[in-house]
Amino acid sequence: MTQQLWDDVDTYISDLVVGPDKALDDALTASDAAGLPQIAVAPNQGKMLNLFVRMIGARRILEIGTLAGYSTIWLARALPEGGRLVTLEADPRHAEVATANIAAAGLADKVEVRVGKALDTLSTLAGDDPFDLYFIDADKVNNPHYFRWAVDHSRPGTLIVVDNVVRDGKVADADNTDPAVLGTRELGELLANEPRVSATMVQTVGSKGYDGFALALVVG
Ligand code: SAH
Ligand code: DHB
Ligand code: MG
């Protein structure tokens, strides 16, 4: 079981169920050209996010961690007429690339990129209506904070998705002292003990390596 095999299967899956897609392919090309890291979700994972939006009929989405807007485009495309997505990005250069990619995808009217550290920009959203779906994919050390904020600004039925919760299996190592791993393990405790959510974590392998998603449905 190797990375090569995971790549081959991801290519097989993405060729089957995603195929070429100009806006998304151009977004990745622009991301690479600008020297941004290749850490966007894989195409089949992006499609999964798109399906989540449609499954719950989300109209308001908050994404934390925009990068070049690849996952943003997948999520925003699934929004109905009048739907909105706010995406938070700390790095102005990333935000600039993302804003251009989102506009080129024809989604500028639905998406707002807010620049700044999410710990700061979240507070500017506090008075807004609750969100229907969160995609948390920024600095992992702050995942407990982002998750708590999300639960506090949700309604029953809100879905919270957190990326990169497995990180090559490090999450299961209680002796790991990497702040990102500690943040993820603290998130795990919250998922388990927060009575307002019902949650799970799922391991994934693929073109982005060995990692996983957390899913939490707000139930009360
Ligand atoms: N969701 C994107 C990938 C995001 S990568 C996709 O799948 O296409 C993580 C992003 O989070 C990076 O662009 C990084 O600059 C941003 N980030 C890191 N720390 C942050 C913070 N404190 N606040 C907001 N964004 C942050
Ligand atoms: C990293 C961040 C991500 O959101 C991701 O999907 C993969 C890697 C990182 O910071 O290394
Ligand atoms: Mg990620």
Overview of this protein structure:
The structure is a single chain. With 220 residues, the protein is an alpha/beta fold. Helix content is 41%, strand content 20%. The chain is built from eight helices and seven strands; from the N terminus they run αααβαβαβαβαβαββ. The protein has helices at residues 3-17, 22-33, 43-56, 70-77, 92-104, 118-121, 143-152, 179-193, and strands at 60-64, 84-89, 111-115, 133-136, 159-163, 197-206, 209-218. A seven-stranded mixed sheet has the order 3-2-1-4-5-7-6, sandwiched between helices. α2 runs antiparallel to α5 (92-104), α3 (43-56) runs parallel beside α4 and α7 (143-152) runs parallel beside α8. The longest helix is centred in the N-terminal third of the chain and has 15 residues, at 3-17. It is globular. The mean pLDDT is 97. The structure holds S-adenosyl-L-homocysteine, 3,4-dihydroxybenzoic acid and magnesium ion (MG).
Question: Which tags fit this structure?
Answer:
20% strand, single chain, 220 residues, alpha/beta, 41% helix, 8 helices, seven-stranded mixed β-sheet, binds 3,4-dihydroxybenzoic acid, binds S-adenosyl-L-homocysteine, binds magnesium ion
Main sheet overview:
7 strands, mixed
Helix content: 40-55%
Instruction: Count every beta strand, where a strand is a DSSP E run of 2 or more residues.
Output: 7
The oligomeric state is single chain
- Classify the secondary structure makeup into a structural class: alpha/beta
Strand content: 15-25%
| Strand order in the largest sheet | 3-2-1-4-5-7-6
Helix-strand string: HHHEHEHEHEHEHEE
Distance from N terminus to C terminus (CA atoms, Å) equals: 41 Å
Average pLDDT level:
97
Ligands bound to this protein structure = S-adenosyl-L-homocysteine, 3,4-dihydroxybenzoic acid, magnesium ion
Computed Rg: 17 Å
Unreliable stretches covering 5 or more consecutive residues: none
Work out the helix count.
Answer: 8
The coarse silhouette is globular
